[in-house]
Amino acid sequence: GAMNTCIICLGSNDGREQNLQLARERLTEIYPSVRFSEAYLTAAEGLQNPSPFLNQVAVVHTRQTAEEVRATLKELEREAGRLPAHKQLEVIKLDADLLQFNDRVLKPADMQRSYVQRGMAQVMTNE
Length: 127
Description:
Elements: E1 4-12, H1 16-30, E2 35-42, E3 53-62, H2 66-79, H3 86-89, E4 95-101, E5 104-105, H4 108-111, H5 114-123
Antiparallel strand pairs: 1-3, 1-4, 2-3, 4-5
């Protein structure tokens, strides 16, 4: 199969540093050619929990389908200790979202966020 380009956004508002570190290590194991943007501290949007988020953008090239990439990211969230009950508490140990798959934008609203735009500019250069 052809190589697919995936844009992934990572986020955490709980154990931020170590959870993003875990995500980077795992993604590097699974997708050795992965590239990461800087990590950005961003204000919580639309949450009662005022704890800021640490966000980071990653680009991976893989033969996996979008569904397989999503399943991989879900597994990663679980490994970081994310539990369904956390959603109500607004505790996000790790959010790993597939924003774009090749030319298919899956999360248009997220793509507009300034840290995603900045992160993409970093990871998509000199491809």
